[in-house]
Design a protein that fits this description.
There is one protein chain. The two termini are 27 Å apart. The protein is mostly helical and 171 residues long. Helices cover 68% and strands 4% of the residues. The chain has six helices and two strands. The mean pLDDT is 83.
């Protein structure tokens, strides 16, 4: 995050940041659902990915990490679990953005520009790379959580991965 600070986009403003933060916090906290083995799941990934696409890595990861912290506090998770969850979400976002950027994706994506032409090859490439960003995010997020849960529950990684992540990757 410290390196990202030097390359961050301008601050998007309190209203958009606050709005996404409140929605993601609700989705991470009181609206989260239980998964099979020692965890919880949510649809806050929609906000995480939206924040990154709209505001870039630094602000998107910041919004996501703060929402994760607040949501975990609301669920009364232990400090170590809360810290891990915030860190792993930043790692998943970083990994997804790194793959997206390495393949030529733009932040914000070209398809969000007011003058975007959907027939443009660059716009179509950015749209296709969004799916790469999302897949990378999901795989890194699920892997980090599965490693932590398997270590904490003394279960095999494969068992935890199948139980907690099998249906999630269909999103």
């Amino acid at each position: 995050m410290a390196l990202a600070w030097t390359r961050r986009a301008p601050f998007p403003g309190w209203l958009p940041v606050g709005t996404l933060l409140v929605i993601a916090t609700l989705l991470e906290g009181p609206l989260a659902t239980r998964v099979r083995i020692a965890g919880a799941g949510s649809i806050a990934f929609v906000i995480h990915l939206s924040a990154v696409l709209l505001f870039g890595f630094f602000w998107g990861a910041g919004i996501s990490a703060c929402a994760m912290l607040l949501g975990n506090i609301a669920r009364r998770n232990t400090p170590i679990k809360t810290s891990f969850n915030a860190g792993q979400i930043v790692l998943a976002i970083f990994g997804g953005v790194a793959v997206y950027s390495a393949l030529g994706g733009h932040l914000p994506p070209l398809y969000l520009a007011a003058s975007a032409d959907s027939s443009s090859p660059l716009v179509q490439r950015d749209f296709g790379l969004f799916f790469v960003l999302a897949a990378s995010y999901f795989v890194l997020n699920a892997a980090a959580v599965s490693v932590a849960v398997s270590l904490g529950s003394e279960r095999a990684f494969r068992e935890v991965w199948r139980a907690n992540s099998g249906g999630v990757l269909g999103y």
